[in-house]
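Batch queue: ligand-bound targets. Current item pairs a single chain with flavin mononucleotide. No template structures supplied; prediction is de novo from sequence plus SMILES. Inputs echoed for audit trail.
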Amino acid sequence: MFERLVYVSRAAPGITARDCYDIIRVAHNRNSQFGLTGALLFLDGYFIQVLEGDRFRMRERFQVIAADRRHTDVDLRQTVACDETLFTGEWMALRSDAEVDPAVKARFGYRPGLPADAFGGEQIVAFVQACCQQHAAAA
Ligand SMILES: Cc1cc2nc3c(=O)[nH]c(=O)nc-3n(C[C@H](O)[C@H](O)[C@H](O)COP(=O)(O)O)c2cc1C
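Prediction returned. Tokens below.
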């Protein structure tokens, strides 16, 4: 049994796509060590992250991530138990503004920060998956 969480946060002032590569480099390292997978979007100054894996490991790592000063207003939108992972083999996929097809955004009715009153956890996870699949298909 695994657990999956999704959160939305606001990037700290001055954070750019370049900083995301630093984040991802360390994330790959740690996530592969702990058997965690997922995806991170950096869109319009917000982070949207899906993190999944062993419940204990994931919660432990999320505590570290949530306290990271490179983002604020970490808003946990969903935590669910699941039988399988959605991002198997992805220690942490990354997509930023330039890599997300506007058609995918339009299909999901995307708005910056995916406001909680309009976007549920399942919807956000589906959006993150679509952003990653679209990229893979175009590669
Ligand atoms: C938006 C965001 C997403 C992050 N995602 C991960 C992640 O998936 N896995 C991870 O280990 N660290 C992630 N980090 C980095 C952690 O906050 C932390 O800096 C890193 O894990 C190193 O922590 P440690 O050396 O104390 O273990 C993320 C940071 C930010 C700002």
